[in-house]
Design a protein that fits this description.
10 helices; alpha+beta; globular; 322 residues
């Protein structure tokens, strides 16, 4: 569709966006009314919300609108999976300038819709507002399916630390894009469009995971959230983490030790969890550390030593800014 969102108008844009959506059995009433109705068979709803701001969370010269849509949905749906829940639905708030091409908005919605389909969820509503900077506000909902939520506070001494998904790929892709390159493509795509292992969250809950989160801020930072909530000390074994040869090549080219990306790079949205030591984990889970003991000063160490290198995501920190 040609033209701008200003020319199409608020309600015309809403009609165009909602016409592209699909549904799921969990959606009892979708877009078009004052509110949506989504089934919650468990009787509890898991909810998470996030905001993406152009220039800070995405760049239109790096990512297509479709990429931004996939990423926006993925990072919110991953939060639901990391609680051990199954994603069911998503709500979208959009702030866009009037001169934005309609095609950008529709391609964004296509990306959000397609990522929801990967996770088994659906877009059920939202809002559109005129503003100067593209801003996306996403709320994701999920169903626990009679399991208890897996929080960050349940890690116990003796538990193993394991993850499934990708580590450092998005950060390596960001480094490539920052230097004006577009390859290796796999790492660039990992930054533009993360692929969270949604199924792994509920599966981990079923296996008896004691604590869990997705890796959005960086492995050390997110494991630090678990250590703090659980009041424990945790040690990571860097040698247990596989670093692909291409990541080593990128690191050599840009002068960065790739372990930096693996330990502090965020936005991969891998699933990180602690498990009792006697749990037999499927092959997709990689054990990379251990919960050492309770502590009044929770800490994450790497190979027995504190990790002092900068990194990890903090919106108000001096190093934040992706």
């Amino acid at each position: 569709m040609k033209g701008t969102v200003g020319e199409l108008g608020e309600f015309g844009l809403i009609r165009e966006l909602t016409s592209r959506l699909t549904s799921t059995p969990a959606v009892r009433l979708g877009p078009g009314d004052d509110a949506a109705v989504v089934a919650a068979p468990d009787g509890r709803v898991v909810a998470s919300t996030d905001i993406l701001l152009e220039g800070r969370h995405f760049r239109r010269d790096w990512s297509t609108a479709y990429d931004v849509g996939r990423k926006a949905a993925a990072q919110n749906l991953a939060d639901i999976a990391a609680m051990g829940a199954v994603p069911t639905s998503l709500l979208l708030g959009m702030v866009v300038p009037a001169e934005l091409p309609v095609t950008w908005a529709t391609e964004l919605m296509d990306g959000i819709r397609d990522e929801c389909q990967v996770a088994g969820a659906a877009v059920v509503g939202g809002d559109v507002v005129r503003g100067e900077v593209i801003t996306l506000a996403i709320t994701a909902l999920g169903d626990l399916r009679n399991l208890e939520p897996v929080t960050r506070s349940g890690a116990r001494p003796g538990d193993v630390v394991a993850y499934t998904g990708w580590l450092g790929w998005s950060a390596a892709g960001h480094a490539v894009l920052s230097r004006g390159f577009r390859s290796p493509r796999a790492f660039v795509e990992a930054h533009r469009r993360p692929e969270p292992p949604y199924h792994a969250g509920p599966a981990a809950a079923g296996l008896g995971a004691t604590a869990m989160c997705d890796i959005s801020d960086g492995l050390v930072a997110d494991l630090g959230h678990i250590a703090e909530a659980s009041k424990v000390r945790i040690d990571l074994r860097s040698g247990a983490i596989d670093i692909p040869s291409q990541m080593n090549d990128i690191g050599q080219a840009v002068g960065v030790d790739p372990i930096q990306w693996v330990l502090t790079g965020g936005e991969d949205h891998a699933i990180l969890a602690t498990f009792p030591p006697d749990v037999k984990l499927p092959a997709r889970w990689k054990v990379i550390g251990e919960v050492l003991g309770a502590s009044v000063q929770p800490q994450v160490t790497v190979d027995g030593a504190p990790w002092h290198s900068t990194g990890g995501w903090d919106h108000f920190g001096t190093g934040g800014g992706r």
